[in-house]
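User: Design a sequence. Structure:
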C-alpha cells in the first residue's frame, strides 16, 4: 500500500559553503538515491523535491572538496554524486540495477505449489541501456502481462494443470513474463531474444531458478534460453511447436508486425488448444498495432478476448511529479477454424 513520506528540499542538505564533513555528504547522497519504481499506479510518492537537486549534484562533482583530507572519501563522494545525477538524466543514463517485481498468485495456482506461495518475487538485473538494446530494460507491458497470466491461462488453457505445455516467449528481454510463468505452471519454457540480449537473460534465469519449485504432484518445469531472430523465423528454438506463445511490447519498428506474426505462425502448434497472449502499450499514435492485428488475421489467427490494463511509466514523470500512466492492450489469439487440428 502506498505510504506518504516527508518530502525534503535541496536546502535541507549539507551545503558546500559550510564545508561539511565527508560522512554528512555521503549520507545526503545516499538519501538522494532514486530506486527503480514499480509499474503500479498506487506507488509511494517521491520523498525528494527535485528542484535544484541536479545543480546541487553538479556542484559537488565540480568541487575539489579541498577541506576533505582523504582522497578515498573524495572519490566516494564524487562517485555517489555522479550516480545520483545519472539517475536523473533519463532512462538511457540510468546505471545498472537490480529490480524486484511481485506477482500475486490466485488460489488455483498457489494451492498446487509445493511451498503454497501466494505471490512470486522475481528479481531482475538490468544493465545500463546502450545503443538499441531495449531488451536490457523491463517495460510496463511485461509487468501487466505477467500479472494477467494466471487468470488468462486458466481461462483459455484449462488443460494447463493436466499437461506439461511448451511455452515460447518472443522478445523476452529481461525475462519477467516467462519467469513468472515458470512459477505459476509446470511447463517447458523457452525464452528467446536476439544474441545481444541473451547474456543478461541467462543471468536472470539463473537468478530466479528457485521460482519453479514444482507442484505437489512431483512435477517440475524447465526454463531455457535461445536466440530467435524474427527476421529469420524458420530457425526454430528447441523444443519446437509450443502450444502457448507470449509476447509483451514487441513492436518498435515497421517490419516488426510482419516478422512477429510470421514467427508466431511458424512456431505455434497446429492445435485447437494453442493460444497466443500479447500485451501492447498504446503509445502516442501506436502506429504498428493495427498492422499487427491485420497481419495476425492474415496468418490464420483470430482474437478470442482482449482488454486494457493501466500501469505507469517507471521513470518518466508529468507535471506535478505524478508518473505518466500507460494504457496497455492485451489480447488472446487462436487458430481460425480449420487451421488447428
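Assistant: Done.
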Amino acid at each position: 500500500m502506498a505510504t506518504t513520506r516527508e518530502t525534503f528540499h535541496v536546502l535541507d542538505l549539507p551545503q558546500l559553503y559550510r564545508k561539511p564533513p565527508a560522512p554528512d555528504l555521503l549520507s545526503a547522497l545516499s538519501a538522494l538515491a532514486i530506486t527503480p519504481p514499480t509499474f503500479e499506479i498506487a506507488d509511494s510518492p517521491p520523498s525528494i523535491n527535485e528542484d535544484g537537486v541536479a545543480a546541487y549534484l553538479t556542484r559537488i562533482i565540480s568541487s575539489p572538496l579541498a577541506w576533505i583530507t582523504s582522497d578515498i572519501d573524495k572519490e566516494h563522494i564524487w562517485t555517489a554524486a555522479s550516480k545520483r545525477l545519472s539517475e536523473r538524466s533519463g532512462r538511457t543514463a540510468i546505471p545498472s540495477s537490480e529490480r524486484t517485481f511481485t506477482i500475486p498468485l490466485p488460489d488455483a495456482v498457489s494451492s498446487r505449489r509445493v511451498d503454497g506461495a501466494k505471490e512470486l518475487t522475481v528479481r531482475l538485473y538490468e544493465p545500463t541501456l546502450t545503443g538499441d538494446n531495449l531488451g536490457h530494460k523491463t517495460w510496463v507491458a511485461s509487468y501487466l502481462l505477467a500479472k494477467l497470466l494466471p487468470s488468462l491461462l486458466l481461462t483459455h488453457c484449462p488443460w494447463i494443470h493436466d499437461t506439461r505445455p511448451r511455452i515460447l516467449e518472443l522478445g523476452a528481454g529481461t525475462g519477467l513474463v516467462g519467469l513468472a510463468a515458470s512459477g505459476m505452471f509446470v511447463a517447458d519454457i523457452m525464452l528467446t531474444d536476439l544474441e545481444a540480449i541473451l547474456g543478461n537473460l541467462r543471468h536472470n534465469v539463473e537468478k530466479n531458478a528457485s521460482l519453479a519449485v514444482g507442484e505437489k504432484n512431483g512435477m517440475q518445469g524447465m526454463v531455457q534460453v535461445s536466440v530467435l531472430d524474427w527476421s529469420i523465423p524458420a530457425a526454430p528454438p528447441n523444443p519446437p511447436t509450443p502450444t502457448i506463445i507470449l509476447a509483451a511490447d514487441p513492436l518498435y519498428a515497421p517490419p516488426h508486425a510482419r516478422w512477429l506474426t510470421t514467427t508466431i505462425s511458424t512456431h505455434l502448434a497446429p492445435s485447437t488448444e494453442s493460444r497466443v497472449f500479447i500485451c501492447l502499450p498504446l503509445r502516442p499514435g501506436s502506429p504498428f498495432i493495427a498492422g499487427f492485428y491485420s497481419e495476425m488475421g492474415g496468418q490464420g489467427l483470430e482474437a478470442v478476448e482482449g482488454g486494457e490494463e493501466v500501469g505507469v511509466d517507471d521513470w518518466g514523470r508529468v507535471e506535478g511529479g505524478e508518473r505518466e500512466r500507460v494504457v496497455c492492450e492485451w489480447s488472446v489469439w487462436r487458430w481460425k477454424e480449420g487451421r488447428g487440428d
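DSSP finds nine helices and nine strands in the chain. The two ends are 47 Å apart (CA to CA).
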